[in-house]
Amino acid sequence: MSNDKRAASAPWIRTRLRTAPGAATALAVLVLVTAFLAAAFPRAVDAYETKGLRHDIATADAGRSTVEIARPQPGLELPQEQREAETRSPELTRVGEALLKALPAPLRADASSVAYGVRTTKPSVATEPWLPKPDAVPPKLTYVAQSGLKDHATLASGTWPTASGGVTADSRAVQGAVTEETAAELKVKVGATITLPTAAQEPITVTITGIVAPRDPKGSYWSADPLLRSPSLVPDPSSSFPVNFWTGTVLLAEDTGPVLLSTAAEPVVFWRIPPDPTGLTGPDGSRLTSVIASLESGPGLLEVRRIAGGTAVVGTGLGTVVEANARMRDAISPVIAVAALGIGSVAAVVLLMTGALIAARRRDELALMRSRGGSLRGIGGRLLAETAVTVLPASALGLLLAVLLVGEGRWWPGALAAAGVGLLVCVALPVRTTLQHIRPTLHGAREDMVSARPSRRRTVAELTLLVLAVGAVTALRRRGTSTGGGTDLLVSAAPVLVALIAALVLVRLYPLPLRLATRPMARLRGAIGFLSLARAGRSSAGGALPLLALLLALATAAFGGSVIAGIGDARDDAALASVGADARVSGMGDRVTLPDELVRTVSGLDGVRDAAPVRVEYSVAMPEAAAGGDAGTRTDTAAGTDTAGDDAAAAGDAATAALVGVEPASYARLARTHGLPAFPAARLRATGPSAPLLPEGTKAGPERILPAIASPAVAARLGKEPRAVRTLSGDFQVQVVGTTAQVAAVSSTDFLIVNAASLEQKAPTTLLLAGAPDPGKLRAAVDANGKKFVVQLRSEERARYVNTPMQAGAERIYLAAVAAGAGYALLAVLLSLLQTAPERKTLLARLRTMGLTTAQGRRLLAFEATPQALLAAGGGLFTGWATIALLSPGVDLVPLALAGVAGSDTGPVALRTDLWSLGLPAAGVVALAAAVAGVQAWWASRRGSITELRAGDSR
After folding, report:
1. Spatial distance between the Cα atoms of 138 and 34, rounded to a whole number of angstroms
2. How far is it, in rounded angstroms, from Cα 605 to Cα 582?
3. Cβ contacts of residue 840 below 8 Å, gap of 6+?
4. CB of 797 closer than 8 Å to CB of 578
5. DSSP letter at 719?
6. Contact indicator for 573, 904 with CB cutoff of 8 Å
């Protein structure tokens, strides 16, 4: 019997697939694309988290990322032979290999850069007369006998240092080498000798036999201790005067560690183990943090001491690097979850719409089977088998494509996501169809949406969703996307809930304008307007499910576009705040002024539209805060009205400020060009007591009063009365005549702007340029005037914000979310129109028998599709705008836009409405609806009425 059933089921599936190959292929393609997106998302997240973790570890300073295991020199109670043996290469190699094997997963070592040896921790004074002595202080040197010197350096001159004859603690002559940088700065030559004091006052003579050049200067071998590669001029902390001395490192032969035991320089035995990030993945971050903590002060440290000795300690900054990566990941994940839930919801609704379309097309067929005795279980089983044959291979192929096309990541999250897509489609069609045929239905029953009334259960469900949406939006606005304990799905689903509520509200309100419009249309002579509105109200294309899909897709696209636009705007603003203009030329020091020839040459370069010379003086001491009401009054230049501050105490932080001397006219043009707050150049007019001094450089008395534009804090501190200030540009009084929150010349929040013509010293220190000059020509023109000037370009500063793999990966996900949202919106329109396509074709055929012309038929279909398209487009625009407006206070884009860039502005970065992502998909919905209606009318006009109106046709 089972064989008969199997034989009967196979022809059914083959017959159905052969009967409707187009529908099966379309469903398979839709499932394939959706399964690919569902499987690609977790893999993309894993990929950018993995690349981000590897990037942060690989680019971190070697002094932070290297794991160093060190222990003091062997105890004096041990025999000298044993002490020397513990500092020789064989023993150090044995311990090092054991330490590498004992490293707990996922921490792995870069074996090619592992170094071990003996080094001094207390610098020794070098008294050789030929060594440089700035400020008459001799250099202090450290000494290290480190393994692998020949593998990580090339010999520039001389010979490699060797430990010939066996070096012991009693040896008093050893060989060493220095790097090229050390030799150049400390005047060391091959054959020079340096004396290293010992505890027994018997000096050790170190002969420099070679000068070496590092193979990889930035590698961990040379950068874990930068003094190995480059000497440093450091201040003397023991001196009461500002004096400096040189410090550097001498590289001893590899097996000369025992000689350092006789010194008083506190030698230690060490093993430096750089991490190898190539095998790490994003999920390994939390395990790596635990492993590092264990090595520093836990069970891992006990194992290290068992191998290296009971006094060994582990020091590393790798844990800090991994924790910083985890903080960025935790800050980005909730924002990404918003996009994931939005696109996931849209995809689920579109799949349900597809199932509804297939069920509607096969309603009569399945009703006939039901009327002839077919059981619900049998019909559902056949539909499940028929759907699974198409859907499951498509889901598997989507998963395979995601694995092949998306970077490395865990396979099981993508597999679960693809399986979820396949399961949803396989279950949705049988369940929906089975529920429709539980009871026999009368043929031709109308589903007039205008006359339908929502049930009480639907009202309760809608109110429940409304409460959830209000709670999610409120939580998101109050505490943001990050809850401190991971991603809150309710908070991340706020845009989806807002779109859901909007769809339910629009479905309820949709019949009202139709009723109002139908009455005047009924009085007109033509039937096209009345028929189109009647059809629009009766059509299921304007139901809750299609409208929900459209609003979700449009809101997700608008939200994603706003995220991308907000990131770009934040980076542009940060770059402008850092540079001050499109390009900036300034001196290396605050007192370096720009020559007139340099200003004229640079201002005349091709691509420079405008130039504004500025004189900047930092850290100008401000007078004590004004008492009484004067301290709290300032003039708002943007509004042109006086506003009151909190009080004088609020200005206590503005003890110092940057003095900015500008040419009011040129600076006002520059501010206007770069979109900065309007600058009131007329208020800084140099007239009366602030007129320019003639001749230039004439000393002026402190009674001169200069009008000034100040930052709000400085204005609150100075008040509205003249206050005296002392600067390198002259002594004078300033009177605040306006405030502005931002100035192009400095990034400081405390500043004071005056007319440069009124200063005793007018020479500019900075030149701000508007335009796009050639970087090479600009730098060449500046370098022609000396090496003490610096060129900064806004474009180069802007490029610093896009080099983090985690940020770049998150941006790509949001770009994909915008594209997917727009695509699903158009697909939802197409599905909703296809669902009613047979009815429209039959309607046109019947009306053509009554005299309807082809042009009238086209207008009828266009007018019928217009209300649904306008409802979806208008609702999508409003929902997208409302979603951004409601959620912007709780979404901070700093982790995506500016995190990880030193010196960047880390103020809150809020969502900004992007008109393209808001309006373009909505316009596409209207255009697609009109295009589909036109194509349907054209196609229907090509088919005869007899073809559409066959005898016995129930449509």
Report:
1. 72
2. 14
3. 535, 861, 864, 936, 940
4. yes
5. -
6. no
Spatial contact of 545 and 872, defined as CB atoms under 8 Å apart: no
Separation CA 346–CA 41 (nearest Å): 15
User: What are 492's two structure tokens?
Assistant: 């991340």
Q: Give the DSSP H or E segment for 737.
A: strand 730-739
Residue type, 69: I
Rounded CA separation 284/817 (Å):
27
CA 767, 772, 778 angle in degrees (round to 5)? Answer: 55
Residue 492, CA atoms < 13 Å, CB-side half-sphere: 21
Residues 12-60 pLDDT 10s: 667 767 777 777 888 889 999 999 999 999 999 999 889 989 988 988 8
The contacts of residue 903 (CB under 8 Å, 6+ apart) are 578
At 766, the amino acid letter reads T
Q: Which of 412, 415, 400, 424 is nearest to 345 (CA)?
A: 424
Query: Helix (H) and strand (E) counts for the chain?
Result: 31, 23
- Alpha-carbon span 766 to 614, nearest angstrom: 5
Partners of 116 in the β-ladder: 271
Structure confidence at residue 943 as a pLDDT band (50, 70, 90): low
Specify whether the backbone of 98 is left (phi greater than 0), alpha (psi in -120 to 50) or beta: alpha
Check pLDDT > 50 for residue 568: yes
Crossing angle of the two packed helices 376-405 and 411-436, in degrees rounded to 10: 160
Contacts of 389 (CB under 8 A, 6+ apart): 13, 17
Q: Hey, what are 679's tokens?
A: 């600058």
What phi, psi does 447 have (nearest 5°)? -115, 65
Residue 319 sits at φ, ψ, to 5 deg, of -60, -40
CA quadruple 934, 936, 942, 946: dihedral, nearest 10: -140
Q: Taking Cα atoms as reference points, which of 66, 204, 219 lies closest to residue 148?
A: 219
Nearest in space to 251 (alpha carbons), one of 175, 163, 157:
175
Q: How far is CA 163 from CA 160, 171, 183, in A?
A: 10, 11, 22
Question: Residue 564 — φ and ψ, nearest 5°?
Answer: -65, -45
How many CB atoms within 10 Å of residue 339? 25
Residue with tokens 């582990």: 314
State residue 256 phi and psi, 5-degree precision.
-105, 20
Helix (H) or strand (E) holding 244: strand 244-252
d(Cα 866, Cα 541) in Å, to the nearest integer? Answer: 11
Are the C-beta atoms of residues 584 and 768 closer than 8 Å to each other?
Answer: yes
d(CA 190, CA 160): 11
**Helical H segments across 510-617, by residue range:** 511-523, 528-538, 544-579, 596-603
b or e along 491-508 (b: 16 or more beta carbons within 10 Å of the residue's beta carbon)? bbbbbbbbbbbbbbebbe
Q: What is the mean pLDDT of the chain?
A: 80
Q: Which helix (H) or strand (E) holds 411?
A: helix 411-436
Reference 932, options 858, 870, 822, 856; nearest CA is 858
Tens of pLDDT along 691-733?
665 555 556 666 678 888 888 888 888 888 888 888 888 888 8
Give CA–CA dist 263/292, Å, rounded.
33
Element (H, E) at 619: strand 608-621
- From 624, 645, 615, select the one nearest 711 (Cα to Cα): 645
d(CA 201, CA 360) in angstroms, rounded, equals 101
Q: What phi and psi, each to the nearest 5 degrees, are found at residue 2?
A: -65, -35
Instruction: Tell me the sheet residues that pair with 514.
Output: none
* Burial 808-842, CB ≥16 within 10 A → b, else e: bbbbebbebbbebbbbbbbbbbbbbbbbbbebbbb
Q: Of 904, 800, 908, 897, nearest to 577 (Cα)? A: 904
Please report, as a single letter, which amino acid is at residue 712: P
